[in-house]
Amino acid sequence: MRSIYYMITENLFWRALLLEHFGRSRQPRNIFVWLGSLRLYQTMKMLRYSYVFVLIQAFFILTTAADLALLLNNTLGYL
């Protein structure tokens, strides 16, 4: 999990970059291009994290199922 400090600094970085670019370009439509790319970046990052989360959960479920199968096998073997 990311820390709160990391999320705040990343958010401030993107805002500063956005304001710097908008102040330099002087074209009003560029702000919408930057906002769209920022939203796309955040969405892709969220999808990547959710994909990794699903993989980790699947790994833990499979590991737990394998452990239970081994436990059952060992228990039945001793009976």
Question: Layout of SSEs?
Answer:
Elements: H1 4-25, H2 28-78
Helix pairs in contact: 1-2
Structure description:
The structure is a single chain. With 79 residues, the protein is an all-alpha fold. The chain has one domain. It has helices spanning 4-25, 28-78. Helix 1 (4-25) runs antiparallel to helix 2 (28-78). The radius of gyration is 23 Å and the shape is rod-shaped.
How would you concisely characterize the structure shown here?
This protein has 79 residues and is mainly α. Helices cover 92% and strands 0% of the residues.
Q: Tell me how many strands there are.
A: 0
Radius of gyration: 23 Å
- Succession of helices and strands: HH
Low-confidence stretches: none
Tell me the helix content.
Answer: over 70%
Main sheet: strands, sense, barrel: none
Number of helices: 2
Mean pLDDT: 73
Percent of residues in beta strands: under 5%
Shape: rod-shaped
List the domain count as a whole number: 1
Helix and strand composition category = mainly alpha
Give the termini distance in whole angstroms: 44 Å
Features:
single chain; 79 residues; 2 helices; transmembrane
